[in-house]
């Protein structure tokens, strides 16, 4: 027997539109029915029952972003800010597609984004439906809060889907079996209509963050407003013609108004120190700058799986200078590029979240590794510890893991832990939260919408983020120049957070930003230079085997994963091929 949960994920139209992984089981024969072990008429009767069902929706909503080498990982690698590292020369195109000519190949699409989003949507629909059917014994306050959270999860899940796939099914009722769940794609306009409807209703039902008796980690009214500000801004700009900065005036006005509601609430603020947003530097989760965090723990498979790919790698762990373990054993599969690093002002405090050195134990010896910005490689600090260059061992080799890795990227401290005791590290899963919406995001969204409506409006909000980074305030400028400044600020502020892909795509600049970066590193690849003579895996820029061959425009959409398409039994149409409307600049 398999759970309907795992079965539908493989076989059904909208990829795991499941009732509950804890409630239903089913055999593998599609002709058989699904049977429940719990009578829903007796289970969904108390607030605790509904909260348990809601937690399942939260869980799968979070898993869209936490999947190892999944959505979060891919979105970062599609921009110029991050690049992959490899154990071998294998390009791994299925994992790290940087706009190759096979971009229309369904095997290159976003893995698990579709399926996990629809699991979260169906779990939200369960809460919404059962509240209508069985919620008579629940207080009006509790019912509003349960409904509001479910609406946010559903609405934001559709927001993820529409940005990646465009048109998609819009189920608003839950399934009780595997029958009748094949649904066709609705129009993009209908998806946007559902997103705004869900988020707007949720904002009227949920209390402000910090309300007594309401957990601080839950979706709040401010999170709904912030999501609406972001969604209206995205729709207004992505649907405008290529080359146009603005968009639908009414939608820009809505974006500005909703972001202003968050600002005027007085609940949120910027941390004085940028790095306090991240668990590596500050153990305080759901803090003053968090509008909404996805919750993770570093045990019981509840960790931030995407962060596994951003650590040191191999079978070693980061330590402090004394050798006490404080970071789990992750993999250095991706990290910040030197190309991106050099876009910052050297005094920018956000560089502190890009690690340029670390300590670790190699073959029992404590070593200090420092990033060489010329070689673009981590090298050993030969002045630290008992390093002996005459001993040709891992522990005394001047380059990090030379036999098996080529570590040419910097480390993303936003996604890794910093624990103080071995007991605090229960497995290799990072326990840091992922802040889906930060207050800095809201300020920059407000500035962008305000400036596009009235030139120069929003400068104060832009400068709050800019000066927090230790940089001098920006002066008055023209509308286009300010728009450029806001987008650049977002690219610095949100680096490594899987947000800049959407910013660059909707503004129509992703090709212009990624193409020269790929070209530069392809030139390094073509030189076939070995940093370590005789060690093939030390070749610089292993990944950049090709020039950029596909130039994405605002209209770019990903393919539906083939397993989900097959499970639809003809109900779904595949996303049309993306046409490269502009030829690559570099031949």
Descriptive overview:
The protein is built from 16 helices and 13 strands. It has 587 residues and is an alpha+beta fold. The strands form five sheets. A four-stranded antiparallel beta sheet has the order 6-9-10-11, with no helix packed on it. It has a three-stranded antiparallel beta sheet with strand order 1-2-3. Strand 2 (24-26) and strand 3 (35-36) form a beta hairpin.
**Gross geometry:** globular
Measured as a percent range, the helix fraction is 25-40%
Number of strands: 13
Q: Give the name of the CATH architecture of the domain at 1-70 and 110-206 and 557-587.
A: Alpha Horseshoe
- Here the CATH topology of the domain at 1-70 and 110-206 and 557-587 equals Serine Threonine Protein Phosphatase 5, Tetratricopeptide repeat
The proportion of strand residues reads 5-15%
Number of helices: 16
- Mean pLDDT across the residues is 85
Largest sheet entry: 4 strands, antiparallel
CATH class of the domain at 1-70 and 110-206 and 557-587: Mainly Alpha
Order of helices and strands: EHEEHHHEHHHHHEEEHEEEEEEHHHHHH
Using only C-alpha atoms, the radius of gyration works out to 24 Å
Q: What order do the strands of the largest sheet run in, or round the barrel if closed?
A: 6-9-10-11
Distance between the termini: 54 Å
Structural class by SSE content: alpha+beta
Which stretches are poorly predicted, pLDDT < 50 over at least 5 residues? 1-37, 91-95
